[in-house]
Amino acid sequence: MKLFKLLLTMPLLLGLLYACNNDDTKTNKDVTGNNSTVDESANNKNTTNNSENENERTGIKVADVNYAFTEFDLDVEYANRNSYDVEYENDGNNIYAELDDEIKGIEYKGDQAYENFVDALKQLTFDETTSDDDVRKEVLKAFALDENYKSFELEVKFKNGEIKHYHHNK
């Protein structure tokens, strides 16, 4: 009799343990009745990534912007471990902007970031044929940055699709 009770309780316990499983994957049935596994953690990562991009997106209309480049990524490092970082991207549908100015202690994304450096972007006149030294000088002047930097890194994607990297260390 004890063996019979044991045989009955084991499947019930296993079923209960299976139901209490705390895994991030769920099994869904699609219309055809096939089982498919959905990884909820992957969906959460995509949602987080999309919300980060949402934070960086500006309300500026793409048609209202006319620079020689579609992407602009500037990173200037100084000896006191402070840096000035600007990221601008126009993907044809949206404009994304980020600003991390450790010198002034500010960090903005989206509209706030763009508003902080739009005047500097408007001053930039260089193109893919401009010398590296002239680009560096023009960028430092437009963004009112100190020339006593440790490293200057700029990556620009021009409208024609050409990507140029500008590096200078002191």
Describe this structure in words.
This protein has 170 residues and is an alpha+beta fold. The chain contains 4 helices and 8 strands, in the order αββαββββααββ. The longest helix is centred in the first third of the chain and has 18 residues, at 2-19. It is globular and about 80 Å long. Mean pLDDT is 78; it is low at 23-52.
Defining traits:
170 residues; alpha+beta; 8 strands; 31% strand; globular
Offer a quick outline of the entry.
This protein starts with a helix and ends with a strand. Mean pLDDT is 78; it is low at 23-52.
The overall pLDDT, averaged over residues, is 78
Strand content: 25-35%
User: Structural class of the helices, strands and pairings?
Assistant: alpha+beta
Shape: globular
The level of helicity is: 25-40%
Q: Low-confidence parts lasting 5 or more residues at pLDDT below 50?
A: 23-52
Question: What's the main sheet like?
Answer: 6 strands, antiparallel
Task: Write the SSE topology.
Elements: H1 2-19, E1 25-29, E2 35-39, H2 40-56, E3 69-77, E4 83-90, E5 95-101, E6 106-109, H3 111-123, H4 132-142, E7 151-158, E8 163-169
Antiparallel strand pairs: 1-2, 3-4, 3-7, 4-5, 5-6, 7-8
